[in-house]
Write a structure and sequence with these properties.
By secondary structure, this protein is an alpha+beta fold. It has helices at 19-29, 33-40, 94-105, 107-114, 118-131, 134-153, 161-188, 201-263, 278-300, and strands spanning 2-6, 9-14, 47-50, 55-64, 71-80, 84-89.
């Protein structure tokens, strides 16, 4: 666990806390056993717990995996007191590391973020984490535009079902992660004023506005991907029907020709079979039948 101190306020951060580490800080600050159990559990719901001497927060940060292009989530547990803030999470979070580096290298940044108190630092911390989600939402929007371009600008049949379903899964996952965060941020302004002063309510409203904008963009993305899926399915159905129509016309055209060829292939006495021009006559009859049938299909608009 790393720590950073400025004017009596300490920020503790651990990217991979063990049970021993958690019990140590529990003994130091008097955290509740249930909160420590929540930190040890793999999947805890987002929430805010209010105690006399500290606040305990659990929230989730979505991220885009570079290896799988799938949306995942990182759980962040925060203990907030009047002179300390503890952040616990599994694995490195780039935005947290960047913030830590800024504070470590610049006293001016430490003064800006920590001097107003732990409540303001919590705002700055959460503001940077949730502002960092806009690039993820932008990635989803760009992928929708790419699929839309391929679907409407390509005259050939293109199977985009896998791309559409993968993007739809990311949108659903992103929405399921953001939904409880809206309630979590909204409740922070009503919590213990010893840690989050009344004048910080406006700041947390700003975070809530950012989440609402992301939610609105995802809502639009969901409608667009649903429409693209319906359009893609209709396009595939249209192409399939066109192929089936051509094959059906081909089969219907060949049916009488096959019958005529089979008829004259029987080992029985047939009319004109001894005539020297019978082969040419059969060929001309077949061609005439094909021309008549194709002309009929064209007049009906089936071709």
């Amino acid at each position: 666990m790393r720590s950073l101190v400025f004017k009596g306020i300490t920020w503790y951060d651990d990217p991979s806390p063990s049970e021993k580490d958690l019990r140590t800080i529990q003994k130091q600050f008097g955290f509740h056993d249930l909160d420590i159990d929540d930190c040890l559990s793999e999947h805890e719901r987002p929430k805010v717990e209010d105690y006399d001497s500290y606040l305990f927060l659990v929230f989730h940060i979505p991220y885009m995996s570079k290896h799988t292009d799938r949306i995942g989530k990182e759980e962040v547990n925060i203990f907030l007191g009047p002179d300390f803030i503890v952040t616990l999470h599994e694995g490195r979070i780039a935005l947290l590391d960047e913030l830590w580096k800024k504070l470590e290298e610049s006293e001016e940044v430490r003064k800006t973020y920590l001097d107003p108190g732990t409540g303001y630092f919590l705002y700055e911390l959460m503001n940077q984490l949730f502002d960092g989600l806009f690039p993820v939402v932008d990635t989803i929007t760009k992928e929708i535009r790419r699929i839309e371009g391929v679907l409407f600008e390509n005259e050939e049949q293109v199977d985009l079902l896998k791309d559409i379903m993968s993007l739809k899964r990311n949108i659903i996952t992103m929405r399921s992660i953001l939904l409880p965060q809206r309630t979590l941020i909204a409740t922070l302004e009503h919590k213990n004023r010893k840690f989050i002063s009344e004048d910080l309510a406006l700041y947390f409203d700003d975070i809530l506005d950012a989440i609402e904008r992301q939610w609105s963009l995802l809502d639009t993305a969901k409608e667009m991907i649903d429409a693209l899926q319906e359009t893609h399915e209709a396009w595939l159905q249209h192409k399939t029907n066109a192929i089936v129509r051509v094959l059906t016309i081909f089969s219907v055209t060949m049916l009488p020709l096959t019958f005529l060829a089979s008829l004259y292939g029987m080992n029985v006495v047939l009319p004109y079979q001894e005539h020297p021009q019978v082969f040419g006559g059969v060929v001309i009859l077949m061609i005439s039948m094909v021309v008549l049938m194709v002309g009929y299909f064209a007049r009906k608009g089936w071709l």
